């Protein structure tokens, strides 16, 4: 995904904070950052390590939705 696509999904997060979190996730090898040499477009994708976190994050998201109402 491109940064602007991520920023649209995570609307309650400033660009600065999102950038910091992406750098942190990249350093932990959860996210991969790639730059298209011709266009300079930066894209982010999950590494295998990040992909394996998806079920955990889905469960956390479901838990949050369930208990957010209280």
Please sum up the structure shown:
With 70 residues, this protein is α+β, with helices and mostly antiparallel strands.
Fold topology:
Blueprint: H1 3-9, H2 15-27, E1 31-35, E2 42-46, H3 48-51, H4 54-68
Antiparallel strand pairs: 1-2
Please characterize this protein's 3D structure.
This protein has helices spanning 3-9, 15-27, 48-51, 54-68; strands at 31-35, 42-46. The protein has 70 residues and is of the alpha+beta class. It has one domain: Orthogonal Bundle (Arc Repressor Mutant, subunit A), CATH 1.10.10. Strands 1-2 form a two-stranded antiparallel sheet. The N and C termini lie far apart (33 Å). The relative contact order is 0.13. The model has no long low-confidence stretch (mean pLDDT 93). This is HTH hxlR-type domain-containing protein.
């Amino acid at each position: 995904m491109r940064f602007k696509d991520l920023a649209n999904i995570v609307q309650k997060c400033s660009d600065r904070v999102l950038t910091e979190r992406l750098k942190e996730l990249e350093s932990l090898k959860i996210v991969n950052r790639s730059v298209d040499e011709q266009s300079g477009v930066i894209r982010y994708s999950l590494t295998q390590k990040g992909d394996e976190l998806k079920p955990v994050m889905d469960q956390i998201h479901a838990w949050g939705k369930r208990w957010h109402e209280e």
